[in-house]
Specification:
The structure is a single chain. The protein contains 20 helices and 20 strands. By secondary structure, the protein is an alpha/beta fold. It folds into three domains: 90 residues, no CATH class; 115 residues, Aspartate Aminotransferase, domain 1; 247 residues, Type I PLP-dependent aspartate aminotransferase-like (Major domain) (Aspartate Aminotransferase, domain 2). A seven-stranded mixed beta sheet has the order 5-15-14-13-11-6-9, with helices on both faces. The chain is elongated, with a radius of gyration of 29 Å. The two termini are 29 Å apart. The structure holds pyridoxal-5'-phosphate. Pyridoxal-5'-phosphate binds next to helix 8 and strand 13. The site of pyridoxal-5'-phosphate (PLP) has 13 residues, from helix 8 and strand 13.
């Protein structure tokens, strides 16, 4: 121990309580260490953070079990300046931030599901920056309806008689159930009483909309005759068919087709509502995906109402879309609940621009990020991985290009794996978990996977322009 240090401890011992060495708030604010901070930030804010910092130091000194242990230089204003600086920085960082998704899960619900097309972003910014004709008819110069936007496009693209947009898929389903089955019974197959994520379960959604659930058939087999028997006993207003999008039932299974249910509905005066979940408008074959029921087919089968999300396989902003017979759509528009779950102008603008891209299927595949990610070939991803690895290796980062597999996510296509490519990085300090943590806390957070003791980035979910950001982040954080 140096002489200065020894003197310091001698003095500490002579002071019965180290807390007495803490400088006053005024002295600290006048010190050299606070000059820059006070120049860059409002004084009131600095004082507020300094008070918190002083409290922290006082508390820590008070809690010290061993009075002999070095307390840090409690007299030095720099200690407080550093603490205040950190607090100022943390309070300036927004809570909701853009992150890079290196997980390989395309519709990652925790990372905000679907990234948007450029034209959707432009449209959203344009109506958000100023005013918009949200509920204003430009022809007549009088009041219009927000529910008229997107409607013609949705009808054109799917063949539906009417269309309505709400703020998410779950809200759309509640709206359909409430309008068509409030106080009445609804038949649902036991194989379709699913949890759609975030703890939301079909029986609970149904109950909250004021309808009464009647379970039909068994988990693995529900025949048309089961629906008929339940209908004759319960006088239901509706059959709800739910697309089991997030898991598979295989083996000894059987279910009534949508066409059969529509036929039964017509015969026994029941509406048929189809909750599709993901609402794929593109051709699954072009995306290398197995067949998936699509809104257009569901409408063509004669379903009364089809419900799906805007931000799953459609690739638009968070929204719930209702398609179906004009008469029912009209009733839903007038329901008070429709007001409670109404969609905002930016969402409508983003959804309309996204739907416009579907007028040409090739444009949709190229411009809608979710579809571009789904259709990216392993060769194209391998080329990006090789380029990235070459640049990282040149910067001295131990890494290699790897084969991996992505999933669609968002509760869709369970069990389907997409052959993908990425990079695998060896942490140069701490293990892979430590590297993953450093990258999550980086200025632009990069979320990847830890596998076999390395950090993995699946390039399918990294937008191509983000490769340069990944290069920068990984080389800066791999070793400290
Ligand atoms: C995702 C999903 C919903 C809910 O849609 P959100 O837009 O997330 O509210 C409803 N039903 C099914 C079958 C789903 O997969």
């Amino acid at each position: 121990m140096g002489v200065a240090r020894r003197k310091y401890f001698a003095r500490l011992r002579s002071v019965s309580d180290a807390r007495r060495l803490i400088p006053s708030l005024e002295r600290l604010l006048e010190s050299e260490a606070f000059v820059d901070i006070l120049e860059a930030h409002p004084r009131g804010l600095v004082v507020q953070h300094l008070r918190t910092e002083l409290d922290r130091v006082r508390r820590e000194l008070g809690e010290r079990a061993d009075p002999e242990a070095p307390p840090g230089d409690v007299e030095d204003p720099k200690l407080y300046a550093a603490g205040v600086d950190e607090r100022l920085r943390a309070s300036a960082t927004p809570s909701l931030r853009a992150v890079i998704n290196g997980t390989g899960v395309i519709l990652h619900t925790n990372l905000g599901r679907s990234p948007l097309a450029d034209s959707a972003l432009d449209a959203m910014a344009s109506v958000a920056r100023g005013y918009a004709n949200l509920e204003y008819d430009l022809d007549s110069g009088s009041r219009g309806s927000r529910y008229d936007h997107c409607t013609a496009l949705l009808r054109d693209l799917t063949g539906a008689g009417g269309a309505l947009v709400s703020n998410n898929g779950a809200a759309a389903l509640v709206l359909a159930l409430r309008t068509l089955a409030f106080g009445r019974t609804v038949l649902v197959s036991r194989g379709e009483l699913v949890e759609i994520g975030g703890g939301f379960r079909i029986p609970e959604i149904l109950e909250s909309s004021g309808a009464v659930l009647v379970e039909v058939g068994s988990t693995n087999r529900t025949r048309l005759e089961d629906y008929r028997a339940a209908a004759e006993k319960n006088d239901p207003a509706m059959i709800l068919k739910v697309h089991r999008s997030n898991f598979r039932i295989t083996g000894f299974t059987e279910e009534a087709s949508l066409e059969e249910l529509v036929g039964l509905g017509a015969e026994l005066d029941m509406r048929v509502v189809h909750d599709l979940g993901s609402g794929l408008l593109a051709d699954p074959e072009r995306l290398g995906l197995p067949a998936e029921p699509r809104p257009t087919e569901s409408v063509a089968a004669g379903t009364d109402i089809v419900v799906f999300s805007g931000d799953k396989l459609l690739g638009g902003p968070q929204a719930g879309i209702l398609l179906g017979k004009a008469e029912w759509i009209e009733r839903m528009r007038k329901d008070p609940l429709c007001r409670a779950v109404r969609v905002d102008k930016t969402t409508l603008a983003g959804l309309e621009a996204t739907l416009q891209l579907y007028r040409d299927p090739e444009t949709a595949l190229r411009e809608i990020p979710v579809l571009a990610m789904l259709s990216a070939s392993p060769e194209a991803l391998a080329a990006r991985a090789d380029t990235l690895v070459a640049s990282l290796a040149a910067a001295g980062v131990p890494c290699e290009a790897v084969e991996t597999s992505s999933v669609v996510g968002g509760g869709t296509f369970p069990g389907v794996e997409l052959e993908s490519r990425g990079i695998r990085v060896e942490s140069q300090e701490g293990g892979a978990d430590a590297l993953a943590r450093r990258l999550r806390n980086a200025s632009v957070p990069l979320v990847g996977r830890v596998e076999d003791g390395s950090f993995w980035v699946d390039l399918r979910t990294v937008l191509p322009w983000q490769d340069a950001v990944v290069l920068d982040l990984v080389s800066r954080h791999v070793g400290q």
